[in-house]
Amino acid sequence: MPDTSAIASSPTIASYPVVVSSIVRSVPARRHRLPARRVGLVIALSVGAVLMLFPFIWTVVTSISANGSVLSTPRLIPSHVTLAGYRQLFSSTIGVPIIRVVINSLVLALASMVLGVLSSAMAAYAFARLQFRFKNIVFVLYLATLMIPLQVLVVPLFIEMRTFHLVNSYIAVLAPTIASATGVFLIRQAIQTLPTDLDEAATIDGAGHLRIFFSIIVPNVRPALATFAVFAFMASWNNLLWPLVIINSPDHMTLPLALSMLHGEFSTQWNVVMAGSVLSIAPILLLYAFAQKYVVQGMATTGLK
Amino acid sequence: MTTYAGSRRRRGRNAGIVLLFLAPSAIPLLLFTFIPMVTSLWVSLHSWNLLTPMRWVGLRNYSSLLTDGMTRAALLHTLEYIGGYLPLVYAGGLGLAVVLNRRLKGRNFFRSLYFIPVVTSWVVVALTWQWLLSPANGLVNHWLSLIGIHGPGWWASTTWAIPAVILASVWKDIGFVMVILLVGLQGVPQDLLDAARVDGASAWTRFWRITFPLLSPATYFVVVISLINGFQVFDQVYVMTGGGPNNASQTLLLDIYNQTFRYQLVGRASALSWLLFVLVMAVTVVQSRLQKRWVVYA
Lengths: 305, 298
Fold this sequence. Notes:
The complex is a heterodimer of chains A (305) and B (298). Chain A has 18 helices and no strands. Chain A is mostly helical and 305 residues long. The longest helix of chain A is centred in the middle third of the chain and has 32 residues, at 98-129. Chain A is globular. Chain B has 298 residues and is mainly α. A two-stranded antiparallel sheet of chain B has the order 1-2. In chain B, α5 (122-132) packs across α7 (161-186). The longest helix of chain B has 36 residues, at 8-43. Chain B is globular and about 75 Å long. Classes of the chains: A mainly alpha (305), B mainly alpha (298).
């Protein structure tokens, strides 16, 4: 996934997080003249919204249709609703242990999120609050990694994992996602906006850096941590390329990988493939519903999707 | 800010603290970004199939890539993809942003809704669109047939494979572009627009003479990100067309993937990774040079 936060460091775009949070907050609509034109706009927007939502509706409809009816003429309202697609998805006949795959995806995404937030926040604290030699050079090296997307690293990473005999292991899927300069950058900006009085008071009271970090800094930059956490979770949950390269046994697969494999083997059984798709988007839609502000903010700030 | 100037002992202790805070991210970055980057440069100068020992070939991987028909085609398809995707997603996102920047009932609802495809996984989006655009029994061609149009072969046709991928990509990313441009629109000063209105400028003129130029930083952001992502287009192509039919939608990253895992040409794939990296860097640098000519900062 390409990182572009370096661009976000330009002065105009650096102010994006603030503005984004203001646009995702709700603003009450004010009454206005020209109601006819407004109604027209709302109708156009609704049509657009239906078009945007339609592929999802079609995914769900297909997943609860019988495969035979799917194959003849596409029907928006299935002639009879059936869970056969889901039943087959969870059965052993498809060659992918789907429950195991979901658990793999979930555990890997949570681990990537927790480790990513922790390692990024700690580095962010070092860059924002500690004085050390070569600090600027080290920071520039961190930023430089933003210019190297995971995509161009898959081949050398694969070779490296092969050298360590880690091909087809969970650790290999997880390892390259742990450290993120994007996270460091995002959280450092948040720490820099905090006044230093609290840290200084704590230092006088004898608190060490670890104590200051965990009991003063972390609670005060929770929005930035949440933004990055949501982003890290989604990036791992949705990632295809790296698991595709490094995993080759069904029981180590993640959901996107399993779906693309199912698709290859069951290319005519759309109800099964779409049932798997529903399984993959449901948790993300839930996350989006509850953490919408952080999702939108994170993506608009970092340019990562 | 906490400083420890002067005391040597404090400085020594500080180094330990710095290491403690940096290690959790520095070690993975070193292991999984810097070292692979360097080894890949080394591998790119060799001929290697992962099994037999590496053989030094110098720059021959690079020179052969530049004349390789498949790689050229992959570059061309990637450019075609970007050429179709970027104008469409920008125009669509701009339209949505302008409309949803007005005071409308339910605009927050619409904003959230148009953003949903952005958060879903590429695999799911590609699968759904492949099904929608299925030439024989997909819904889109079925509807087209109802109004008397014989739909194209979409991902099964050499001409329509890339347009099909573009269509799905624009649908997925339009909400993202909308959000970036909405942020930009918040930065357009209302008093400027009001002053122009008082002076008799039409809505059309106000948009093109004031709003659009002041939106240029956000436009720049969208263009840079879309280009970086566009050069590395993979997931949607891998799932929707697999690079086919007959390699008609083979892109650069797909070429890297195939060279490594299908043909075991690891040296060549590494060289192509480096070329892709240099290409993306070059495009970004050129962009940042050019932006001084067209980006207006209010």
